[in-house]
């Protein structure tokens, strides 16, 4: 049941961020993202892991979305002049991080690559259809989002595994096979 609540909560945060950006009220999305992160963190049995994931995701979001904005490949509504990426996008990255050990806790690195490569660009294309972003360099931006989100999602899964003490990669078994 917690996984379902986590999934639904993230979807609500996504909608709040996108709709807030569209209606020049990006602060509502930021507030929704922060509220989701805070509520999930308070209910989490692994707060230290989740805090590390949120910090990593915020940095990844600033790097990926900031780079795409700087390149002029994506134009974001509701941007913040003093951040490389809009605050509502950064809030979404933080909210996404809170799904990694909860509703997406089943992800393994290979599946994380696939989910990120498909889900990341689809989320941006949905936001574009609604008017929250514009992929000004459509093909390049979509490819960059697919690669960036694949690597970021996989990295977050690996950070979570490492923070929980799990081996990030299965060790070799006798005979050299995996």
Tell me about this structure:
This protein has 178 residues and is mainly α. It has one domain (2-163). Helices cover 71% and strands 3% of the residues. It is built from six helices and two strands; from the N terminus they run H-H-H-E-H-H-E-H. The protein has helices spanning 2-22, 26-43, 47-71, 87-100, 109-130, 138-163; strands at 74-76, 133-135. The protein has a two-stranded antiparallel sheet with strand order 1-2. The chain starts with a helix and ends in a 15-residue tail after the last helix.
Question: What's a concise summary of this model?
Answer:
InterPro entries: DUF2878. The chain is mainly alpha-helical and 178 residues long.
Mean of residue pLDDT? 90
Any idea how many domains?
1
Q: Low-confidence parts lasting 5 or more residues at pLDDT below 50?
A: 167-178
**Helical fraction:** over 70%
Strand content: under 5%
- Amino- and carboxy-terminal Cα gap: 34 Å
Biggest sheet strand line-up: 1-2
Rg on CA atoms, Å = 16 Å
Order of secondary-structure elements: HHHEHHEH
User: Assembly state here?
Assistant: single chain
**Sheet of most strands:** 2 strands, antiparallel
- Provide a count of the helices: 6
Q: Which class of secondary structure composition applies to the elements?
A: mainly alpha
Keywords:
DUF2878 domain-containing protein; 178 residues; DUF2878; disordered C terminus; 3% strand; mainly alpha; globular; 6 helices; membrane; transmembrane helix
